[in-house]
Amino acid sequence: MYLILKPILIYSVMTQSKNKFGLSRREFMRLSAAAAAGFSLMPALSCTSTSIPSPMKRRFGKINFDVTTIGLGGQSSLQWTPVGIEPVDIILKAFDIGINYYDTSNAYGPSQVNYGKAFRKLNLIPGQKGYNKELRDNIFLTTKTMVRWAKGGYPKLDKVRNSTDGNHGEGAVADLKRSLSQMFGNDDGTYPEGAYVNMMLIHNLNNPEEVDVVYKGLETPLDVNDNFGALVALRDYRDGTNITGLNPKNEKLVRHLGFSGHYSAPVMIDMIQRDKWDLLEGMLVAINVNDRRYLNMQYNVIPVAQAKNIGIIAMKVFSDGAMYTKEPAWSNKPEHVVRIIGTESVPSKPLIEYVLTTPGVHTLIIGTGQIDDNPLKCQLVQNYYAAQIAPDALSENERRELENIGARAHNGETNYFQLPDRGLTPPGNAKLTRSDGIRISWDTSYAGNEPVSHYEIESGCNIIGSVKHIPQISRDPFSFQVSTGKKFKIIAVDTIGRKAATEVLSV
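RESULT FIELD:
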């Protein structure tokens, strides 16, 4: 049987709290066997902080923060709360067990308000008696805006989606202030001095037209009397500047900026490549065991983000519940909230391990349906233990074995939110330019279910050169220089030798 969690990791988790748990060697071996079967790592432990060892952490890209390998997702019962579930208790439990990354959005209904209720209990409201600044300094709070424009009165453009649960009728700046008001104020538009979010993400980018809008005022001249994109305005609220005229008090309300996406890896790559200002420090991206069945993230956008040292947060680990009790479709009501911990055929732990051993991933977020004092029924505790895994704990062959688990859920067709697989694509924007000979240039190919290895340059049926594939982090193309020739092809080659060629380019 395949060992889901390597013994050295089980041993390290057990031994660091040996006295606390009082485990005999026989008990340790029993728990190791349970882990090998894909079940709970700690089936005998109470769902309390006194029974749980300190969480593993990873440096969060270029951000000076060590993030726990699991964060609390802002949806599930925090958004669509089933009868009998108290979302505030879920948030408090996450704090109790040591999770330090927290996710929410202006598109998640009552999620931010639920955080606000929890923050009051935790003394995280600046200016109030007993404010726990040390605790606030040691968590990372991320919210999102799905409004692409900085301010209200924006035009309706084809393929540019703007959405918020707020009724402010304004843009991304208003969403930022709404987040602070809901989580640190009274949800009346005001917020206390000293309130901030650690990061705001441009939420759910699907189309290149949306990226165009987000960069208006950065890539194009900034006209403060006209409208412009979210990024240039949010930069003002990060830096305490007023270049856009939207931050007259020179407030600093957000510390880092980023974006999220789960649909199109090419669009997400475009978002990163256009960032000449190094504004993007975080990326929330869909990744799970069925990723390679689609136009995948792990061989396309994730390496690009990793090359720019962007903090990478994984989502859709369980395909929004489609691995379990729901159909592959968007959740939108309490009945869609998953409240089980895996199944015999699709255990949850290996799905988490797969994601956290994807190169480049720093943490993942999972929505919690319910918590329980019985650790076997406590989603949060079970997911927490599954996330105690090192980035290199699984080999690539072991990761491929875990992909077989995903095939058991809807025959692997779980990722309804992701573009279908296109296979290896030819290099893009191939061109010939006369400059001290002939300069051949092209943009990245998109990988199929194997990584891109290199590009071959063909002339007259002969391969005349080769260029190694690396993540293309800007719009500067790959290039190859030749002195003479009339007709050329550029051929992308993946790691198992499959090829995709451009049309013939003629001088």
